[in-house]
Amino acid sequence: MNIDRSFLIVPEVYYHLGLSNIVKETNWKINTFSAGLSIIYTPKYKEKVIYEKHLKEEIIDTITVEAKEIKENKIMTGRQDITNKTNKTEDTVYFVETIKRTDTLFIQPKLIAKLKYKEPEITLSINYSKTSYPVLPVVFYEKMSDKTDDYYIKLEDKNSFSIESLEKNPLVFHKDILNIIGKRLEQFPESTIQLKGYVDFDREHRDCNLALKRAEGIKDYLVNIWKIDDRRIEIKNSSDNCFPENVPSDKTDSAFAENRRVEILTSNPEILTSISCKEPVDTTVSFSDIINYDWSESTLIGLDNWELEVIQSGKLKYHDGDPVGSYKLINQKLDSSSVSDELKGNPMEAALIINDINGREATDKKKINFNKIIKENDNHIVFSILFSLADDRLSNKVKSEMKNFVEKLDSAKVIITGYSDIIGGEKKNRMLSSNRAKNSAELIRSINPKLDIISIKSYSYDKFPPGIYSYGLPSERYLARTVLIEIIK
Prior knowledge:
The protein is α+β, with helices and mostly antiparallel strands. It contains nine helices and 23 strands. 19% of the residues lie in helices and 38% in strands. It is elongated, with a radius of gyration of 56 Å.
């Protein structure tokens, strides 16, 4: 009907043949015939639109190169590789252009400041005076008494005792003889001691039971206060053997007083060894001339400048640097003031600061440690040898201690001085003192012939040995029967 044929006229013919009766039990059928025209509208089809899109993508990889030879950071653009491809969807066509390239990034490594140095040395040579005080293993008693005299220090708590804290004096050491023995038995738990009590033959009625009680009193103290196993302490007294073998010839109270005693014996020399004390006399200090600083493991390429500062006690001790960043070894000369501050606990601190051409800065700080070497020299040695009453012989214990003192000396000067007590008369004591000194000198020469004995002196009771100020007490008289050995290196 129209040009685009959206309207159409369509002829129609219909015929209907009746097969069933309209009324039941009556043969009545109806057939129909019809004809006509139909107008049909069909909308015109609209053509679908396809869209186009053009896309561009870049794929860039980067390779990073880090090396100390690189002076500044930079990027180098790589060659481009271009590809095209088309992708379609229901209503769109995509035209894709892909650009690929690999760039190279050159960067400097982290700026590193690393300072190293060779540890300088300080040598302290300390010269000591060493004095050895003899241990007198004897306890003296009042007449007819088995009680340990108040002259001797008796503790309630052993933990309060220290040999090192005692005054350096032979009489003070003797007052603490029971505690010294207790401490050493504690230190050497395998050691044993023997106690032998004595009485004054004439004035204590030959009472050996009294001698036994004196020894038992000392044992009780060591067991109860120092907790020493009683099986380690043997009492060697018997009912008929409580009189000293070597008694004074004088019939004076002083002479008789020395018989009233308990002797302490042992097979372990450590229990009765001398007490040694050291005191510094002077100290010499020597030290390295320079400190060598090395910073070669720092960043060296592309530097603009560097500097080294050394600070001690808040003061600048040393400074060096280069305004153009050239590398060099650094040598700091040491002086006595720097070493003195170091010994006072004020160390030097060094700081290396480097700057590169890109404006970066790095710092490394180091506390300067000194290698301290301490040399202890016993340049002056003094020790005493004790002798029995009216005896000038050297005991095995004395010989052993003397060997320890002089055997390893390379060279030294020796002064020997003999002393005596007041019992026995001036002439006899002077002879005893002289013989004791001569016998000691002969022993020293036999042990170490290299030693130079420059003086041998002897005194009767006209001069006290060091630390003794009277002959009133038995302990003072015992300690006065001595030879003093002085070694000067």
